[in-house]
Amino acid sequence: MTTLSAFKNFTDNLNESEQLMPVMFIGHGSPMNGIEDTEFSRRWTQMAKEIPVPAAVLVISAHWFTRGTRITAMDFPKTIHDFGGFPKALYDVQYPAPGNPQLAKDTAAMMPAANVVLDHDWGLDHGTWTIIRHMYPDAHIPVLQLSIDYTRGPQYHFELAKELMALRKKGVLIIGSGNMVHNLGMVAWDKMEVPGYGYDWALQMNDTFKTLISNRNYQPLINYQTLGKEALLAIPTPEHYLPLMYTLGLNSNKDELSFFNDKAVAGSLTMTSVKWG
């Protein structure tokens, strides 16, 4: 249960609204989306114009996989270039958004059983800044990251997310950043430039995921290993899938649901994204 003490200082100064801030799962794909003008990055830019301006942004990124749960709690998180083999222009990018240590403390207090650690060493990895710099290029909105505890399964993350629902009432935009279908070992590098190219199993699983989400039938998504061999091809490792669990746990039956950037890339990846609210 969330206590009133969890909202002292920063969150107490935010006006609570009956209308919840939207919550999104965003397929982030290649780091190059962070600097290129693509159909995906253009949609991120447009999305920011379609939703209320957030008081802060909290991102659960596939690229911060930790033992236990951590949250960035520094005044100015560094820009992390956690990839290799890309053009120098990508490594030159800095996204100087502020953090908010008090919001980090408030958020950690909402999840007492998780014993959330206030982290001063991480920053904003490419699962966060490649998206957010298109949405909020002025870098004026506080951005925090919440890590994913790799010792826990999907059900745990789904339930943990529910404890953060009060942030949506306070104008905090929560984003899960990963990819529903993400199998780098099977990427068709020769098809990178073919729009919408996906293997049959990838397209099948993408459709299955969308149907289950649309029907708000979340238990099969939580127990994705039971969805057949195609699901295991789509999710050979869980880090890019688990951010979806947070967004499933954070939406309500009253939220309007829509999909965007719903395309396959290079055979074994999908950029399919979801907005609730």
From TrEMBL:
<keyword id="KW-0560">Oxidoreductase</keyword>
<dbReference type="GO" id="GO:0008270">
    <property type="term" value="F:zinc ion binding"/>
</dbReference>
<dbReference type="GO" id="GO:0008198">
    <property type="term" value="F:ferrous iron binding"/>
</dbReference>
<dbReference type="InterPro" id="IPR014436">
    <property type="entry name" value="Extradiol_dOase_DODA"/>
</dbReference>
<dbReference type="InterPro" id="IPR004183">
    <property type="entry name" value="Xdiol_dOase_suB"/>
</dbReference>
<keyword id="KW-0223">Dioxygenase</keyword>
<keyword id="KW-0862">Zinc</keyword>
<feature type="domain" description="Extradiol ring-cleavage dioxygenase class III enzyme subunit B">
    <location>
        <begin position="37"/>
        <end position="254"/>
    </location>
</feature>
<keyword id="KW-0479">Metal-binding</keyword>
<protein>
    <submittedName>
        <fullName>4,5-DOPA dioxygenase extradiol</fullName>
        <ecNumber>1.13.11.29</ecNumber>
    </submittedName>
</protein>
<dbReference type="Pfam" id="PF02900">
    <property type="entry name" value="LigB"/>
</dbReference>
<comment type="similarity">
    <text>Belongs to the DODA-type extradiol aromatic ring-opening dioxygenase family.</text>
</comment>
<dbReference type="GO" id="GO:0050297">
    <property type="term" value="F:stizolobate synthase activity"/>
</dbReference>
